[in-house]
Amino acid sequence: MNVLIIEDEKHTANRLAQLLKQLDRNIKIIGFLDSVQAAVQWFKEDEENPDLIFQDIILNDGNCFEIFDQIEVTTPIIFTTAYSEYAIRSFKLNSIDYVVKPYDITEIERALNKFHQFKEALLLPEKNLLKQVLSTTPLTTRNRFLVKKGETYLSIDSRDVAYLESEESITFATLFNGTKHIIDYTISDLSQQLDPVHFFQINRKIILQIKSVKKINTWFNNRLILQVTPPLNKDVIVSRDRVKKFKEWLGK
Fold it and tell me: 226 is in which domain, residue-wise?
């Protein structure tokens, strides 16, 4: 499989290439490009056609969307970025997935698996294509959060998040280690972005990770009250209209 890497940081590009080769020895890196200009030139000159592109969003002479404003690229793309706010826009292009830096081999493997699922779906009879595509993990599954702490940015793995809560229109993520961070998304947004296998919105203001649920008791008006870890300084209530789905979620 031929892979083109568009990334302006040489050590980052080399790290990505190393991980790809580690995951699949049949992968051939056919080029490293470091700018919008170089990428446009590559495609205009009809160089060797890649099967897959790993595309950094922020390059040294602009962002990658400037490439697609100038030329049409039909090759499947996996976007890479340290800035998760660009992810949603990337899905409007020919995107299979996106990976938030710093690179993690499990995230790269997940993205490659989605690419292979995509390829297999194209080979299916038309009547089975929609079923196969819908059975894959949604592209909008969020695996990391970029948060600011003072003058520093941190990349947080969603698996480290115990729960998310809204307080006075501000969304906070509490990690299993007890630390708390402001997240620039609403609870409603996050309920659509997080992996539904691991996260569930129990009411208008709280999303829980399944490992945070320690004890479940019945509550009045056919609701449930939960004990979670780390402890939350308020009642953690599953609203009545979500109780059935919450029980189903716990039993999956």
Answer: 144-250
